[in-house]
Amino acid sequence: MLKNRRHEALIALTLVAPFVAIYGLVFIYPTIKMFILSFTDAPLIGDGEYVGFDNYTRLLRDRRFDTALWNTFYFVALSVVPGTFIAMAISLGINRLKGRLQAFVLALFFLPYILPVSVVFTIWDWTLNFQFGVAMHVFDLLGIDRVPVFKSSAWFMPAVALITVWWTCGFSILLFLAGLRAIPVEIYEAASLDNTSRWQVFRRITWPLLNPITALVMTIQLILQLKIFDQVYLFSTGGRMNDNLVLVLYVFQRAFQSNQGGRAAAVAVVLFLLVIIVSVLNFQLARLSGSRDR
C-alpha cells in the first residue's frame, strides 16, 4: 500500500515538474528579478548600484507617472464596467435565440476577439482616421465637423475604450453564456408559474446566479485593461503620445527609450501590485454581494 502511494506520488511529481520548471523560468524568476532591479539604477542590460527606494520616491514626484496612472484608471473605468454589462446584455439576447441563428450571431460577436491587434488597428484607423476615415466622410455628408479622434486628448481614451470593448467583448459573452446555461431550467419554470415578470426573473434569479461569472469577467477585464499597451501605442503613433501615456507604455519608454531599467522596473512593480490588489478587492466585493443575495 505504501509503495503504491509512493509510486503515485512519484508519477504526479513527474507530471507536474515540467510545468513547475517552466512556470518558475518564465514567471517566478523574472518577477523576483524585477523586484531586485527596481532597487538599483541599472540600465536595461547590465548591472547597477543599489539605490534603495530612490526609484519609488522619484515616482511620487514624476508628473509623467501621475499622467500614466490617471490615464490607466480612466481607461479601466471606461472599458471594464461598461464592457462587462454590454457583454451580459448581449449574452442574454443570444441565449434567447435557438439553433443555427444563435451560433451565427455568437460567431459574429466572437469574431473580433480572434483578430490580432494590428488588424483591429487597421480596421478602426480606416473608420476614424481624421483624413480618410469612413466615419469622417459620413460626417461631411451630414454637415458635421470632422473630429480628430486619435489626435485629441478628450476623445482619445473614450475611442480606445470603445474599440477595446468591441475587440474583447466576445470572450466575455462566451463566459456569460456558459453561466446562463448552467442555471437550472426548473428555476425559470417555477418562476413562470408564479407569473413573475422578466425584470423580476432577471433581478431575483439570473443576476444573483451570474454573480460568480460577473466577478470572473470583471477580474479578467481588470487585469487585461490595467496592462493596456498595444492599442494606445498604435493609435498614438504620430500623435501626442505623452498625453495618452499609460503605465505599460511608460515602462516601455523608461526601459527601451531612456535605458533606465531600474526606474522601469519600479513602475512595473507598482503595476504588478496594483493588479493583485484590484483583483483581490474585486473578488472580495463579489463574495460579499453574493452572500447578501443569498
* Distinct helical segment count: 13
Q: Identify the overall geometry.
A: globular
| pLDDT < 50 stretches | none
Helical coverage, percent range: over 70%
Q: Please count the beta strands (DSSP E, at least 2 residues each).
A: 0
Q: Note the run of SSEs as H and E.
A: HHHHHHHHHHHHH
Tally the structural domains: 1
The biggest beta sheet is recorded as:
none
Secondary structure class reads: mainly alpha
Examine the coordinates and then state which fold CATH places here, giving the name of the CATH topology: MetI-like fold
* Mean model confidence by pLDDT: 87
Query: Which superfamily, in CATH terms, is the homologous superfamily?
Result: MetI-like
Radius of gyration, in angstroms, nearest whole number: 24 Å
Corresponding CATH architecture: Orthogonal Bundle
CATH class: Mainly Alpha
Percent of residues in beta strands: under 5%
Distance between the termini: 45 Å
Describe the structure.
This protein is mostly helical and 294 residues long. It has a single domain, classed as MetI-like fold, CATH 1.10.3720.10. The protein has 13 helices and no strands. It has helices at 2-37, 54-60, 63-95, 99-110, 117-128, 134-142, 153-181, 185-193, 198-209, 211-226, 230-235, 247-257, 261-293. Helix 4 runs antiparallel to helix 7. The protein is globular, with a radius of gyration of 24 Å. The model has no long low-confidence stretch (mean pLDDT 87).
